[in-house]
Amino acid sequence: MATSITIEALTAQAFADFGDVIEANEGDGFGINQGFTWRHHKLATVSTDQPTDDAIISIFSSKNRPAPIAINMMERHPLGSQAFMPLSATPFLVVVAKAGPEPTLANLRAFVSNGKQGVNYGTGVWHHPLLILAPQQDFLVIDRAGEGNNLNEVMFGEGQCGQLDVTDLINKLTNSRE
Amino acid sequence: MATSITIEALTAQAFADFGDVIEANEGDGFGINQGFTWRHHKLATVSTDQPTDDAIISIFSSKNRPAPIAINMMERHPLGSQAFMPLSATPFLVVVAKAGPEPTLANLRAFVSNGKQGVNYGTGVWHHPLLILAPQQDFLVIDRAGEGNNLNEVMFGEGQCGQLDVTDLINKLTNSRE
Fold first, then answer.
1. pTM over 0.95
2. pLDDT per position as a tens digit, B81-107
3. How many CB atoms lie within 10 A of CB A88?
4. CATH no. for residue A123?
5. A118: which chain B residues are within 8 Å (Cβ-Cβ)?
6. In which domain, by residue range, is A23 found?
7. How many domains does one find in chain A?
8. Minimal CA separation from A42 to chain B, in Å
């Protein structure tokens, strides 16, 4: 039987071991454009392993998974950071473990973004692929392109799997849209 | 009296001289994440002048300007690209001129994004600061940080100014929300 993983609210402090939370906080930048724009400056920096690597911009179009969501693998990018910014203001989930040795279920942390928060996974930070609550959601993704293998995966064995109990979150989302 | 600038629909082809249009087109990438995500891959690349420069991620919170919108200046970033992705699916405007000598009114092109399209201005491409149609709109911005001056501006003289007649676009937006 899968073990439930507690879902925490996403905050910069709680997420500090894993990367940056990309969100506009009041007063965290400066005014530009003759006063018509506020720049929430440098909320995250793209990390790339080699000076010849590129930072690239993509769009990920994601579909939801059956609830409860099974967590049976994690991945990491050893050569660069990876940022995800939701293109619609809908809550989604983030499951992470610190950079380092392959994580086990006991090392995982799960967070829910309020939909206006994106995340930037630090280089080598273990994370689960996109986990959305709506049927469909798009993200702007900023990550690294270049030579070398930038993907490692760990698969959990039977009995080592986690699950996210998302029914309440999905109901809340559905109700907020009615 | 200001001269009206024609507003064109934003397409990758029409925008090719100025940079990339960041949008998800069907079939332009590949499936990942056990089939739950489609990666619209490498829609834009962040350009930075020096290998020691960083690609950084910020949020710009913009307010609208009075209609008709006066165009009396342009700016460029000589040391890097700058990408703008709307975080709400609301149309906005883009005014550009090719990289090179300071533009005049006759060199400007104006485009309207459908709200799901972002843009990545190429290095040195002249552009007007954010021009939105809604009262307020946020954008994810990916640009360059590093040493050196990365901003040039040109101010147009009296009688050399342009304007964007946006009343119809704003009415259309307002009606679509009612």
1. yes
2. 999 999 999 999 999 999 999 999 999
3. 14
4. 2.60.120.480
5. 140
6. 3-177
7. 1
8. 5
